[in-house]
Amino acid sequence: MQTVSAQRIENAIRIVARLIDASGDEYWPVLERLEAEQAALASREERLARYLAGERPQAARRLLSPSVRSVLREPPAQRR
């Protein structure tokens, strides 16, 4: 199975948001699933970076991809 990048998930979220805007809430479950996948990927990458950095938060953040760092900057309520 191929690993999905944070950027690819973001692109899919934008596409589904346009579908929802154009055709209604039929695609809303897809958007929620993509948001959950985005949050899970960010969480996995954050934990891995933290462990690799030996619990030094600043060093760990530098190991994360820019798209994951942007997700982590959002308050949890907006990630959903």
**What fraction strand?**
under 5%
Number of domains: 1
What summary fits the major beta sheet?
none
Structural class: mainly alpha
Work out the helix count: 5
Record field, number of beta strands: 0
- In the predicted model, the low-confidence regions spanning at least 5 consecutive residues are none
Keywords:
5 helices, 78% helix, mainly alpha, 80 residues
Topology:
Elements: H1 6-23, H2 28-52, H3 57-63, H4 66-73, H5 76-79
Task: Walk me through what this model shows.
The chain is mostly helical. The chain has one domain (6-75). Helix content is 78%, strand content 0%. It contains 5 helices and no strands. It has helices at 6-23, 28-52, 57-63, 66-73, 76-79. Helix 1 (6-23) runs antiparallel to helix 2 (28-52), helix 2 packs across helix 3 (57-63) and helix 2 (28-52) crosses helix 4 (66-73). The longest helix has 25 residues, at 28-52. The protein is elongated, with a radius of gyration of 14 Å. The chain starts with 5 loop residues before the first helix and ends with a helix.
